[in-house]
Write a structure and sequence with these properties.
With 386 residues, the chain is α/β, with parallel strands linked by helices. The chain folds into two domains: 227 residues, no CATH class; 122 residues, no CATH class. It contains twelve helices and 14 strands. The strands form three sheets. Strands 1, 2, 3, 4, 5 and 6 form a six-stranded mixed sheet that branches. A six-stranded mixed sheet has the order 7-13-14-12-11-10. Helix 5 packs parallel to helix 8 and helix 10 packs antiparallel against helix 11. The longest helix is centred in the middle third of the chain and has 30 residues. It is globular.
């Protein structure tokens, strides 16, 4: 399964290089405006499960990194691809700890598509007229339908807006923290009348839902825990889709797990963007040493404990190594991301909700994270001080 994933990534890398060199750019979809949202009356949707088997979903963040190989031409890009593959495999193995094959056997017939369809229909029926079962049947009668086939059925059914979701389910891997049940998808929204593609996005359930467990925990009792968390992941994915239609935005703001924004580390101080009165230094950042599961992390916090600065333990040393080896912040970024994942996992698994996440960045690197939570998370973390 992992070889297949690596092969697919390599194929995609080759295709990307070719198309970028030939086309230079790709036209963007037309925007889903507020005016268009107000005009939606009847919605048709279809979900397409791309693979029946459990997948390893790479959420390590390695794919988004760059070693600036493009500055050395195609040879540099190839070297960067190899380096990123090695790092991704290392972080995947760390997150999984063992093979998911047995887990896959236990849920081979789990009706995740039907569950996702039901949750989508239930949510959107509260806002729009949703095309009925005859619409679904008309789509099923098409063999390998393309966009034109979908839109033709939509017009016949009186649908004005069409939503298509291609998805895979499986175990999302992050690195040092445990894997989590998740659903990754590509979402497409079309204006049926004009045929315009309004939105095309890659989305994931773990923007709003993540619950790390060991594979042993997931496999117990005929994978009952994993099945339940797949249902929760489906709800998380529906919430993500709903936000694209301007729905559930207040709820989404309180449950979001992904990074909300990035700001230059040079703009950071203990007074901005948030006031951090506990264990913070303008020159050194976070000053309180804590240790979780053998991993040392530095943190600082606001008086309320609702704002937390997270930095890696050996920031200065790793920065020096990066400079001496011309790594452009790679080592520092790796350790900072690991520190964030550990803190995030500990907070979420103990009942805290992450309201906002800000990444502090500098050229080619990550210097720290600011987390805003729904309670006094900093006092909780101080319990790990050493």
């Amino acid at each position: 399964m992992r070889n297949a994933v690596r092969g697919k990534m390599f194929y995609q890398w080759i295709c990307l290089c070719f198309f970028l060199s030939v086309m230079g750019c790709i036209s963007a979809p037309k925007p889903l405006t507020d005016e268009k949202l107000r005009d939606i009356e009847t919605l048709g949707f279809v979900t397409v499960q791309e693979n029946d088997e459990i997948q390893i979903l790479d959420h390590t963040g390695v794919a988004k990194k760059t070693y600036y190989g493009h500055t050395l031409g195609y040879g540099g890009l190839l070297a960067e691809y190899v380096a990123k593959e090695a790092e991704s495999e290392k972080r995947t193995n760390s997150s999984l700890e063992s093979s998911p094959e047995t887990l896959g056997e236990n849920i081979s017939k789990f009706p995740i598509k039907s569950i996702l369809d039901a949750k989508l229909r239930l949510r959107f029926s509260e806002e729009y007229d949703v095309a009925d079962s005859q619409f679904d049947q008309d789509l099923k009668e098409k063999e390998a339908p393309g966009v034109a086939d979908y839109l033709k059925v939509c017009k016949a059914a009186g649908v004005d807006t069409f939503l298509k979701i291609n998805f895979n389910y499986g175990l999302a891997v992050y690195g040092e923290i445990k894997s989590s049940a998740a659903i990754d998808a590509k979402m497409y929204i079309y204006d049926v009348k004009t045929g315009d593609l309004l939105t095309k996005k890659s989305i994931s359930s773990d923007t709003y839902y993540r619950s790390p467990h060991t594979l042993e925990e997931y496999m117990n009792d005929d994978a009952m825990l994993f099945k339940q968390e797949l249902i929760d992941a489906a709800a998380g994915l529906v919430l993500r889709v709903a936000t694209e239609f301007g729905l559930d935005l207040d709820r989404a703001a309180s449950e979001k797990i992904g990074v909300d924004e990035e700001i230059p580390y040079a703009w950071f101080s203990c007074q901005a963007p948030y006031l951090l009165e506990q264990n913070c230094s303008d020159s050194l950042g976070a000053r309180l040493n804590i240790e979780i599961s053998g991993q040392r992390v530095k943190v600082a916090g606001s008086n309320s404990g609702e704002v937390i600065l997270v930095m890696e333990d050996n920031y200065a040393a790793h920065s020096l190594v990066d400079q001496l080896t011309f790594n452009l912040g790679t080592l520092r970024a790796q350790h900072t991301n690991t520190a964030f994942e550990i803190i995030e996992s500990e907070l979420v698994s103990n009942g805290f909700k992450l309201i906002k996440i800000i990444k502090l960045v500098s050229t080619g690197s990550v210097n720290g994270y600011i987390l805003v939570v729904d309670g006094n998370g900093y006092d909780f973390l101080k319990g790990f001080a050493n």
